[in-house]
Amino acid sequence: MVVGAAVLNDGRLLAARRSAPPDLAGRWELPGGKIEPGETPEHALVRELREELGVEAEPVARIPGEWPLKPPYTLQVWTARLLPGSGDPKPLEDHDELRWLTPDELWDVDWLDQDVPAVMEVVRHAWGTPTPEA
Predict the structure, then answer these.
(1) Half-sphere exposure (CA, 13 Å, Cβ side) for 76?
(2) Taking every pair of C-alpha atoms in the chain, what is the biggest distance, in angstroms?
């Protein structure tokens, strides 16, 4: 299982551009990663945001659904908020750029194919707005 974080702040969604591996480099995703043995999805989300972005965050709510990744993995997405005093996210691990996207900018980036349906579901739940075809 992989957990993705829909980090929301001031009506914007945080997107991370992959720097590795080569077949994913340059594409955008929701930050996150694999759930380690004995870890809950919520704990994995907090750990991954600390490792990948250098921030402290807390999970808020799970977005309904699971999306297939490379077998045997599936993606679960949680909305998350940055904790006060955590600082600004920085691309520390497997990413080379971060962008805060407004609903109008959401489809200006080249999302990983497997993240598109998850992002569409985040938009429906977080912003309550219809999404265009990506």
Answers:
(1) 16
(2) 39
- How many domains, in total, are found in the chain? 1
- pTM comes to 0.92
Say which CATH number the domain at 80 has.
Answer: 3.90.79.10
Model confidence pLDDT, tens digit, residues 51-64: 999 999 999 999 99
Domain assignment of residue 28, yes or no: yes
pLDDT above 70 for 128: yes
Q: Output phi, psi for 129, to 5 deg.
A: -115, 150
Residue length of the chain: 134
SS (H, E, C) 77-117: EEEEEECCCCCCCCCCCCEEEEEEECCCCHHHCCECHHHHH
* Residue position matching structure tokens 């808020």: 60
Q: Which one, of 129, 91, 83, 80, lies nearest residue 107 by Cα?
A: 129
